[in-house]
Amino acid sequence: MEIFLRLIVIFVKAFAWIISPLLDTFVYPPKSKRTLIPPVKNRLLILSVQELRNRLRSRQLTSVELVRTYIERIEAVNEHLNALVESRFTAALEEANETDDLIASCQSASDVEKLFEERPLLGLPVTIKESCALEGMTFAVGSLFRKNIKAKADGETVKRLKTAGAIPLLVSATPEYCFSIETDTLLNGRCLNPYDFERTPGGSSGGEGALNGAGASLFGIGSDIGGSIRIPSLYCGIFGHKPSGGVVSVKGHFPNSKDPNFEHYLVEGPMTRFAGDLSELLQIMAGKENSAKLRLNEPFQLNQIKVQYALGFEGINGWMHTSVDKDIKEAICRATTHLKTLGLEVKKASLPNLQNSVEMSLSGIAAQDLMDYLLMDGEAEGSNKVLKILWEMLKSFAGHSRYTTNALIFELMRRSGAFMSQSKMNLYIKESRGLIGEFSNLLGENGVLLFPTLNLPAPRHKWSVISLWGVGYTLLFNVLGLPVTHVPMGLNDRGLPIGISVIARPNQDRLCLRVAVELERAFGGWTPPVPHDLDD
Question: Which InterPro entries match (predicted)?
Answer without folding.
Answer: Amidase_dom, AS_sf, FAAH2
